[in-house]
Amino acid sequence: MTTNPTKPVKKLSMQQRYSALTRDIDWTPSYVTEDQLYPHTTYEGIKIHDWSKWDDPFRLTVDAYYRYQAEKDKRLYAVLDGFAQGQGHLTLSDPAYLNAMKIFLGGVTPLEYQANRHFSYLARHFNGPGPRFAAQCQSVDELRHAQTEIHTLSNYNKYYSGMHNFAKMHDRVWYLSVPKSYFDDALSAGPFEFLIAIGFSFEYLLTNLLFVPFMSGASFNGDLPTMTFGFSAQSDESRHMTLGLEAIKFLLEQDEANVPIVQEWVDKWFWRGYRVTAIIAMMLDYMLPRPVMSWKESFELYFEQQMLNGLFPDLAYYGIRPPKGVEQAIWEKEHLSHLVYHTFYQFSHAANLTTSIPTKEHQAWLASAYPDAFEQFYKPKWDKLEKMAAEGNRYFYPGLPQLCQVCQVPMLFTEHGDPTKLCQRHSEFKGEHFNFCSDHCKEIFDREPEKYVQAWLPVHQIYLGNCGGPTIPDVLAWYGYAEGDSGEMLGNVDHNNWKKWHAQVDDSVGGRESVEVGGAAEAGKGA
Amino acid sequence: MIKSLGTYDFPSKSRQELYGDDILVHVWRKDSMFFCAAATFRAPKAMKWTDFVDGMVMPLMTSDPDFDRTKELSWQLVDDSFVPDPDKSLEENGIHHKNTIALIGA
């Protein structure tokens, strides 16, 4: 390469650099056909006529991207160091708060890593340079999120149970098969379906219900590191949201024949994602010692107002209607969290987290957040379970539950419109009987039964002897559990440690000779 | 029908043959919300109905202190009402792998 030393090279503008980095590195294949080079972009039936119409709204270049991310990382790691050095683990609202983070680490962080892998695949397999580059950037983001989430929570792992084995738990633990199978379903779909499943449904439609509650929970409960991580990821997430929206609009604008295909995916992936949020509903309403907002409020704000009233009127222009299942989800907002926490209470001997009867104060908050449901349908259950616990019979379900073949959640959901009747649906396929939690999971199965017959359902696998052995202790050992990871929260290892640590702090700070253990125990229960 | 790049034909991961002479049977209570969800049992196809109920179903049901065994029970198999023959096997009673049985009353 030769340059003219007398003439200074003119620096490219941001937009020119973006264009040089994306559009200019594309080429037309000469010795293979386009179909041979990109063999995965036609079989789903999606028609793309002009890949150059993909418009990346960010026009971020790689050098700017890394500089910006490095700045954010620096800030995050400074907070992590400060928190660790200042014994920040003692300043949480309550150790029970970390149950929410155990769900996050086991259920969400591994999905970030899977997203990293699959966006990398999209970055290879899309025909157009625009979506390839967008997928490449998102892939790097997802890897950064997985790493920073692990680093953020690793400090707690030194002091608290349930986090030490999160990657293995993600692959093995019964309830973590819900988020895992959700993502596996997307990974094993075609590239366009993945874009609607994860790019649109997960990152746009449901992101404020899936991601934001963990971060606001952290901010209300003294978890400065996770809150800082949340801020660090927020600008990436808003970029992902914009890309998700760009993805669906691009597909819809390219060919009218794409519309019914995309609609089917919107229906399916709304419901798949919504069923994953069941666990978030429980976390928001029952696991935060200092609650932020109820699931019902969260659903109304982030889904009904922002999506149903904001997004879908725009999509109607393309012929897309709100997903099937929306009406049921709206009805369920009053009931979801109560049903799910009740299930975790009964199965917490097998979960990597602890549960307890909600305190009186917490129940009062639930009653005010759910004036039409809590006192009528759910308080009587807690009263009965509390009475049993007081009589020395802390209830654990003595058996294994039935799981939905599609969402893999235990069959805890009720009939749409009737909170007093559990829902049961079923289908036959090639002479085999399959069970579902709802009409919408049944519809998803009936559309692609060949796919869902392969579901690795934890309960069925336990009964096949594929999970460490025939007894519950065998299975828990196979999950990699250690003492204190599961069961009743009160009297648990973390609860006892918390009392001990705070007694020491009170003792040394106050200079008192004796420690009021009862007072510390009250503090340990939280509000 | 699934859209795929090639032949797409994979066996069910929960198919009956993997369980040998056993089947999975689900049981739930239709009139109570005490149990968070229906249960799954692994039982021999040849097990007598009465042994299935006494040996597997009742230990779970009676873990609810309000469960009243003295009341007359009735059953439903999948969608239809069901009067099992107590001395016949699960198979002879027409119960298939992964069928769901509802317990009514109690």
Structure characteristics:
heterodimer, A: 527 residues, mainly alpha, Ribonucleotide Reductase, subunit A, 2 domains, two-stranded antiparallel sheet, 24 helices, disordered C terminus, B: 106 residues, alpha+beta, Ubiquitin-like (UB roll), five-stranded mixed β-sheet, globular
Question: Which consecutive residue ranges of chain A, at least 5 long each, have pLDDT under 50?
Answer: 510-527
The N- to C-terminal Cα distance of chain B equals 43 Å
Contiguous helical run count of chain B: 1
Q: List the strand order in the largest sheet of chain B.
A: 2-1-5-3-4
- The CATH architecture category of chain B equals Roll
> Tell me about the biggest sheet of chain A?
2 strands, parallel
Write the CATH homologous superfamily of chain B.
Phenol hydroxylase
Specify the CATH class of the largest domain in chain A.
Mainly Alpha
The outline of chain B comes out as globular
Shape of chain A: globular
In round numbers, the mean pLDDT of chain B is 95
Give me the CATH superfamily of the largest domain in chain A.
Ribonucleotide Reductase, subunit A
What does the main sheet of chain B amount to?
A: 5 strands, mixed
CATH topology of the largest domain in chain A: Ribonucleotide Reductase, subunit A
| CATH overall fold name of chain B | Ubiquitin-like (UB roll)
Rg of chain B from C-alpha positions?
A: 16 Å
Q: Give the uncertain stretches of chain B in residue-range form.
A: none
SS summary, helix count of chain A:
24
Number of domains of chain B: 1
Structural class of chain B: alpha+beta
Q: Which CATH class of chain B?
A: Alpha Beta
